[in-house]
Amino acid sequence: MIYERNSSSVLIVSSSQKVNIFLSELLPTDKFSPILTVSTAGEARRLLVDRDIDIVVINSPLSDDFGVELAIEASEDLNCGVLIFVKAELQDNVSERVEGCGILTLSKPVSRQLVYQSMNLLVAARQKIKALEEKTSTLQGKMEEIRLVNRAKLLLIEHLKMSEPEAHRYIEKTAMDACVKRRKIAEDIIRTYEN
Fold it and tell me: What integer is the mean pLDDT of 82-90?
């Protein structure tokens, strides 16, 4: 399966202007846009409430927070891809704490190539997650329709003394004749007999 490559929005959270410039220059705008930068965890949280962000890059420590809690919130609550930079001596501890959330941890200093590869990995993972979410949403919709149709069939059986095949055929035919989904017919039946 080939995923359509759209531009991914990026939020860089770093107290270092040097890191902001490094990352902004590293990421091509055809793949990563817009690229937003903030310097504190508080600013990042406020921005994440207002905007959908695909990838959050955190250069820890921040002036108001270490950054791990922000990384976990962004990953788990907002479903963002997250990359966190930490000092080399802290990488094992931080990585152990966040890897279960799907957060990538890189030790500083880091090479341009490794950052770029990590960002592309986050984009690919995020695209797969989006595709799975869409599939899940479609399946949930189908399951809900089946539940409604079954409830409507039971009401037809109970109130109009139809057999199950007759109730099924009635819903199918009525939906086809009216050029609407079975769900609509089922909802109409439920409204009629449950009120």
Answer: 94
Rounded CA-CA distance 37/71 in Å is 15
The H or E element that residue 88 is part of is none
Could you tell me how far CA 166 lies from the centroid of its own chain? 42
| Interatomic CA distance for residues 112 and 115, integer angstroms | 5
* Rounded Cα distance, 180 and 195, in Å: 23
Nearest to 80 by CA among 58, 63, 109: 58
Q: How far apart are CA 38 and CA 62, in angstroms?
A: 10
Give bridge partners of residue 59 from the DSSP assignment.
Answer: 14, 85
Distance CA 107, CA 117 (A): 14
Nearest-angstrom CA–CA distance, 86 and 94: 8
* pLDDT at residue 67 in the model: 92
Nearest of 97, 26, 19 to residue 60 by alpha carbon: 19
C-alpha span between 161 and 25 (Å, rounded): 71
Q: State yes or no: pLDDT of 4 exceeds 60.
A: no
CB contact set of 57 (below 8 Å; sequence gap of 6+):
10, 11, 12, 13, 14, 23, 82, 83, 84, 85, 119
